[in-house]
Design brief:
The structure is a homodimer of 358-residue chains. The first copy, chain A, is an alpha/beta fold. Chain A has 13 helices and twelve strands. In chain A, strand 6, helix 10 and strand 7 form a beta-alpha-beta unit. The relative contact order of chain A is 0.12. Chain A binds a DNA duplex (16 and 16 nucleotides) through helix 3 and helix 5.
DNA sequence: ATGAAAGCGCTAACAT
DNA sequence: ATGTTAGCGCTTTCAT
């Protein structure tokens, strides 16, 4: 009877104070020590079945939840990981995130998403924040402004596991996951060539990004293999990937203004693909007859664009899954890992009306 | 000289152990107590200018950063807020999130995003996690599966500030932000009527959601005002908002299979709008001549759809900003707030080819 | 003006 | 099998 009263009062106390149940409450109510309760809760073999049952049932009744903040402070890990991307309002990245989450969920990790909006400053602030929140690891795709990697290097040197995806860097030794950007661009370009286009342009993102270089190399290689000379004026860099107003329009205008006009475009990102389509439509350029186009995009709407857009699709979901699996391996490894892997996943070209002359 | 050595050694120690500098380190190195350092760091008036300067400079040199986990544990607040939405791969929600982040950033709050993927179970797990991570408040748009609100009610009763947006509930008294869904649907329907459509269907999401009811009411009201009888068979509910395979296709097929066929559609969400467009294209239905369509969508690509899609656009960015401002007011209020506000922001109808007969 | 000590919730080394 | 204690990093009350 006394015990019953005690339980009641603790419950009421906590309820009045609007605070969560703690191990201490349970210990007090049950006349045990906090360590016993703690051990019982985690099913330690040192605790008698009887006590375990008592504790477990009481904890259940009070809907006890361990305080992860306290756990993090103690263990210096949080079973959560941080994602650093430029934009979530982007099919590719939101699909990658879904891949990450699917693995995280099944392995009991929580995911904190942050956006840099292509700003170096924001990227630094976000990584600092995530690190200070004791994330166990980081999944990073670099912002377009990022050239100095010291914010990440420092954390990595301190032992924080990091896996890069999509926009990776050669400056850091760790696991990386990318789409086969070279092949994707190669296929797109080769396909345009075989469709009869001659002056194929490449509208792409900031020149220093890893993916930009890979895609440009694929584009060049396809040209070379078909004996088409490379023309620098056909490559247009949109520093902010079309995120900034007018960027794509200017690129398109430049291509249309060339003495020897471009007759097709390989667009290097989601935003650029749709941006080119929009710009061309506004200027009444007939696609594909006046201008063919193939775009890197993970949009699910390519079929209802006008015209339906030929696309190079990145395996975004798998990129996310692979990156998360790699990160968990790093986090949970008992021994320091010294050999790292760069996983390259295949892209998929789907031909639609935008690249096939009528 | 001795002090210099001490500094060196602490730095080295920490550096070797790959751990962050703590107040304790600073105290030890400077021969002060932790409380003095703590006070100096926050500029307490009780500390002499001399000591303050010493501490501040040393902290600066070692790049000291307070440990937010420890702060959270102590203060039971974290200067971070949680977002609970169904999907970030959705123009509307990613735009709302950008609005939230813009305010959060300027006010020094961090944002943790979580997705329910329309699953009640995930929504509950996510809210529990966020709460246990000591977020200072929650910004919530309910999942389609959610009918039981006890997970949120409990937290709210315990004093956790919550602001609802988009998919709100009448069961809880707090601030809410929505688009003027009634008006949006009314305008869309009235516009289709004035364009000469007669059998206007409504393809919408789960019937119990607040926004569904509001939009349905607007649709009905427009019909009534134009003396068109309401026909239940013209309203099709897609329980998962088109997230599940074939949902939208079935709705479209049902409308096409009616004895008195529908001749226009008001689609109630991003996914449903594009889903209907896709389904109609596949079935070779000519838009708008055989079927007109206006959709609730925040896509930026409506102009390059075929045909360009007439849209009801929600002020997503402002919804996010308003919700975040309201939440901060709740969080930072000294006194308990008892009177709550539901802010209704206007939608915008843009007429494009999909709803104007040729 | 500064220090000692307690406590936030939890775990684990060390008793017993 | 269970309890005591210390400690994670920080703030704050209470001494001095």
């Amino acid at each position: 009877m006394l015990r019953f009263c005690a339980r009641q009062s603790v419950f009421l106390e906590r309820h009045m104070k609007f605070e969560a149940i703690t191990i201490k409450d349970i210990a007090k109510a049950l006349g045990l020590s906090t360590s016993t309760v703690s051990r019982a809760l985690r099913g330690s073999y040192e605790i008698s079945e009887e006590t375990k049952k008592l504790v477990l049932e009481y904890a259940e009744k009070l809907n006890y939840r361990p305080n992860p903040i306290a756990l993090s402070l103690k263990e210096k890990r949080s079973r959560s990981i941080g994602i650093v991307v430029c934009e979530i309002a982007n099919n590719f990245f939101s699909q990658v995130i879904n891949g990450i989450e699917s693995i995280a969920y099944s392995k009991g990790y929580y995911v904190i998403i942050s956006q840099s909006h292509e700003s170096y400053e924001r990227e630094v602030a976000n990584t600092q924040y995530l690190a200070s929140r004791s994330v166990d690891g980081l999944l990073v795709s670099l912002s377009t402004e990022t050239t100095d990697l010291s914010h990440l290097k420092k954390l990595h040197d301190k032992g924080l596991p990091i896996v890069f995806f999509d926009r990776i860097t050669e400056e850091m030794q760790t696991h990386k996951v990318i789409a086969n950007n070279f092949n994707g661009a190669y296929q797109a370009t080769a396909h345009l060539i075989s469709s009869g286009f001659q002056r194929i342009a490449h509208v792409t993102i900031a020149s220093h990004l890893s993916i930009t270089k890979e895609r440009l190399a694929g584009y060049k290689s396809a040209l070379a293999d078909h004996n088409i000379p490379f023309d620098e004026s056909l490559v247009r860099y949109c520093k902010y990937g079309g995120l900034i107003y007018g960027e794509t329009e200017q690129a398109v205008d430049a291509l249309l203004g060339l003495e020897k006009k471009a007759d097709a475009i390989v667009a290097a990102s989601d935003k650029l693909s749709t941006g080119c389509l929009t710009a061309l439509a506004k200027r009444n350029i007939k696609i594909p007859d006046q201008m063919g186009i193939v775009g890197f995009t993970n949009s699910l709407l390519t079929d209802i664009f006008y015209p339906p857009l030929s696309s190079i699709r990145q395996p975004a979901l798998e990129i996310g899954q692979t990156a998360m699996e790699m990160l968990i391996r790093l986090i949970e490894s008992k021994h320091p890992i010294t050999s790292f892997e760069t996983r390259v996943l295949n892209t998929e070209l789907t031909v639609r009306a935008s690249s096939v002359k009528s």
